Protein: Fe-S cluster assembly sulfur transfer protein SufU
Organism: Halobacillus seohaensis
Amino acid sequence: MSFNNLDTLYRQVIMDHYKNPRNRGSVEGDHLTVDMNNPTCGDRIELQLQVNDGVVEDAKFDGEGCSISMSSASMMTQAIQGKSVDEVLKMSRIFSNMMLGNEVEDDTLDLGDIESLQGVSKFPARIKCATLAWKAMEKGVDEEEA
């Protein structure tokens, strides 16, 4: 597949998550809530996590922002459900490295649709948009473990 076709496919995946977000809403039962925003561009997210026995059992979000921030939140909440806290933190480190333009060398975790955000690393102003939900998740997991 040529670069242009791959770029088009990635854009389609991002727009699909933006227009049809997965896990938008509220978590039922006991959960923790993390509110974060990116004042530079106005992105805002409320992330709700239900973590039991070191496993993220449910993750939902609400908020507003650009297609990058909202699609990243959709992809992340989809990817972390059912994973251990250690796994989601490892995914977050891999994602952060990907946003810095570093090669993703760890193939033990399937990033799925998240890989479509790789191109964001070429636009430094958009990296904060892509990482907002991930930073909220890290903060929530840290609070849960404290």
About this structure: The helical segments are 3-19, 67-80, 85-99, 124-145. The chain has one domain: 3-145. The chain has a mean pLDDT of 91.
